[in-house]
């Protein structure tokens, strides 16, 4: 009877470990996606710095997608920001840069939180592995 309990407990711990590993994989994917968003926002911020230095009425090329550009001239440096459900608001470059900085900080905070969660899960995983090894050794002896 003792042997059966060990097997049942061992099986439960294995399942627990597999669930933990699946959650960890999910968190890692979230961290990667968040970091990618953060990189893209930093790139936009750099592009805005360059755009800020463009003189009004000077000619520029605008990207319409990968490898597609249109030529135009700048008459106004206000930006239109899409705020969802086809609504855009007009913002100055400094206002836009401030919003981007806030978004980057939010993403970085979220990334740090997820990394802490990952460490906690990792520690739980190590504990479970130890318990599994212990149970495994016990069931080997009782055979």
Topology:
Layout: H1 2-52, E1 59-65, E2 68-73, E3 79-82, E4 88-91, H2 93-141
Protein model, in words:
- The protein has 143 residues and is an alpha+beta fold.
- It has one domain (2-141): Orthogonal Bundle (Helix Hairpins).
- 70% of the residues lie in helices and 15% in strands.
- The chain contains two helices and four strands.
- It has helices at 2-52, 93-141; strands at residues 59-65, 68-73, 79-82, 88-91.
- Strands 1-2 form a two-stranded antiparallel ribbon. A two-stranded antiparallel ribbon has the order 3-4.
- Strand 1 (59-65) and strand 2 form a beta hairpin.
Jot down its keywords.
Helix Hairpins; two-stranded antiparallel ribbon; 70% helix; rod-shaped
Provide a brief overview of the structure.
The protein is an alpha+beta fold.
**Strand adjacency order, main sheet:** 1-2
What's the CATH first level?
A: Mainly Alpha
Range of helix content: 55-70%
Specify the structural class.
alpha+beta
* Cα Rg: 27 Å
Which sequence of SSEs, written as H and E, runs from N to C? Answer: HEEEEH
What is the total domain count?
1
Distance between the termini: 12 Å
Global mean pLDDT: 90
The major pleated sheet works out as: 2 strands, antiparallel
What's the helix count? 2
The CATH topology name reads Helix Hairpins
Uncertain residue ranges: none
Number of strands: 4
Which geometry do the CA atoms define? rod-shaped
How does CATH name the architecture? Answer: Orthogonal Bundle
């Amino acid at each position: 009877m003792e042997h059966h309990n060990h097997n049942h407990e061992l099986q439960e711990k294995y399942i627990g470990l597999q669930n933990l590993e699946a959650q960890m994989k999910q968190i890692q994917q979230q961290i990667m996606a968040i970091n990618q968003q953060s990189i893209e926002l930093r790139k936009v911020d750099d592009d805005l710095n360059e755009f800020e230095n463009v003189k009004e009425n000077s000619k520029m090329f605008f990207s319409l997608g990968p490898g597609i550009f249109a030529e135009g001239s700048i008459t106004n440096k206000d930006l239109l920001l899409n705020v969802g459900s086809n609504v855009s608001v007009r913002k100055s470059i400094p206002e836009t840069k401030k919003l981007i900085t806030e978004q980057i900080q939010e993403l970085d905070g979220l990334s740090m939180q997820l990394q802490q969660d990952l460490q906690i899960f990792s520690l739980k995983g190590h504990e479970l592995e130890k318990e599994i090894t212990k149970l495994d050794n016990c069931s080997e002896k009782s055979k």
